[in-house]
Specification:
The protein has 281 residues and is an alpha+beta fold. The chain has a single domain, classed as Metallo-beta-lactamase, Chain A (4-Layer Sandwich), CATH 3.60.15. It is built from six helices and 18 strands. The strands form four sheets. It has a seven-stranded mixed sheet with strand order 1-2-5-6-7-10-11. Strand 14 and strand 15 form a beta hairpin. The mean pLDDT is 96. It binds zinc ion. Zinc ion (ZN) binds next to loops.
Length: 281
C-alpha cells in the first residue's frame, strides 16, 4: 500500500490516504481508446485488468478536519471482496488512527459522487446494525447526485449501494452548483461520469489545488478522449474537461487524482498533441 502523502497548501494541510487498490478491466477504463494505445501508458495483467488506487483526501484547516471521499465498500461480503481483490479491514481507519484521529474528529465529509468505491466507508456494521462511520460529520453532496443515488436505473444500480446512503440520510447536506464550504475550500460541479459529480478546490495563500474526482481518474486519463466506458454521459465529460482543463491550467492548479495507483499529485500540461498530466513530487 502507498504510504500516506502529506502536502501543505497555504493554510491547509493535505494527507492523501490510501484505501488500497482495485483491479478493473483496461478496456472499460479507457473507453473508445484502442488497446494498442492505452497499453503504452499502463500495463494490464493476464486478465486485461489494470491496477488502480483509491486515494481519499484528508484536509485540515485550523482545528477542523474534512475527508474528501471515504474509499471503497468492503461490506457486501466475501465474494464482492474477492472480485475486487479487497481485504476485510478498512485501511483508512488505521491511517486516521496513525495521524492521531478518531472517526468522530471528522466534521465534514465531501462526496465527489456516491459510487461504492468512493463512499464505501460511510457506514459500518456494528453489533448487527449499520452505523455511520463518521457520526459527527455532515456529508456534503450535490443534490442531483443524492437524487440519482436514491433512484438508480438499470445502468447505475450496481454502482450505488443503498447501505452507504440510506443509514446516513439525515447527515447529508445537499448543494446545487459551485459553493464555498469553508473559506478557501469549494465544491465545483464536474458532470459526466455522473450528472451530479463535483470536484473539490482549495485556494489558499496564492496556491491552488483541485481534487479531480472521476473526471480524470488517473494521470493516464488526462488526454481529452481518454474517457472511461463507465461514464454515464461521456459527451458531457468531454465538455466538462474542456472547461475545467482551461481553468486548472490558467490557474496553475496542482491536481489530485482519486484512482492514481502511485503518487497521486500532478499537473496538467498542454502540448501540440493535446493535454497530458505529469506527476509533481
Ligand atoms: Zn471511481
Amino acid at each position: 500500500m502507498r504510504p500516506i502523502l502529506y502536502h501543505k497548501l497555504g493554510s491547509f494541510e493535505l494527507w492523501f490516504l490510501s484505501d488500497g487498490e482495485i483491479w478493473l478491466d483496461g478496456g472499460a477504463m479507457f473507453g473508445v481508446v484502442p488497446r494498442v494505445l492505452w497499453t503504452k501508458l499502463v500495463v494490464p495483467d493476464e486478465q486485461n485488468r489494470v491496477r488502480l488506487g483509491m486515494n481519499p483526501l484528508l484536509l485540515r484547516m485550523g482545528e477542523r478536519y474534512a475527508l474528501v471521499e471515504t474509499g471503497i465498500d468492503r461490506k457486501p461480503g466475501e465474494k464482492f471482496r474477492r472480485i475486487y481483490g479487497l481485504g476485510e479491514t478498512h485501511p483508512i481507519l488505521g491511517q486516521l488512527a496513525l495521524l492521531g484521529l478518531e472517526p468522530s474528529d471528522i466534521s465534514l465529509v465531501i462526496h465527489t459522487h456516491l459510487h461504492f468505491d468512493h463512499a464505501g466507508l460511510n457506514t459500518l456494521w456494528v453489533d448487527g446494525k449499520l452505523r455511520p462511520t463518521f457520526p459527527k460529520a455532515r456529508h456534503l453532496v450535490q443534490k442531483q447526485e443524492l437524487e440519482d443515488a436514491l433512484h438508480p436505473h438499470e445502468r447505475s444500480r450496481a454502482s450505488y449501494l443503498p447501505e452507504n446512503i440510506e443509514p446516513i440520510l439525515e447527515q447529508f447536506e445537499t448543494v446545487e452548483g459551485e459553493q464555498e464550504v469553508w473559506p478557501g475550500l469549494r465544491v465545483v460541479p464536474v458532470p459526466g461520469h455522473t450528472l451530479g459529480m463535483q470536484a473539490v478546490e482549495i485556494h489558499s495563500e496564492g496556491q491552488r489545488f483541485a481534487y479531480t474526482a472521476d473526471l480524470i481518474p488517473t494521470m493516464a486519463h488526462a488526454p481529452l478522449p481518454y474517457i472511461m466506458a463507465y461514464d454515464l454521459y461521456p459527451m458531457t465529460t468531454l465538455e466538462t474537461r474542456k472547461r475545467m482543463y482551461e481553468r486548472w491550467l490558467e490557474g496553475h492548479y496542482l491536481l489530485g487524482f482519486t484512482h492514481e495507483p502511485g503518487h497521486p499529485l500532478g499537473r496538467l500540461v498542454r502540448s501540440e498533441k493535446g493535454y497530458r498530466a505529469e506527476p509533481v513530487y
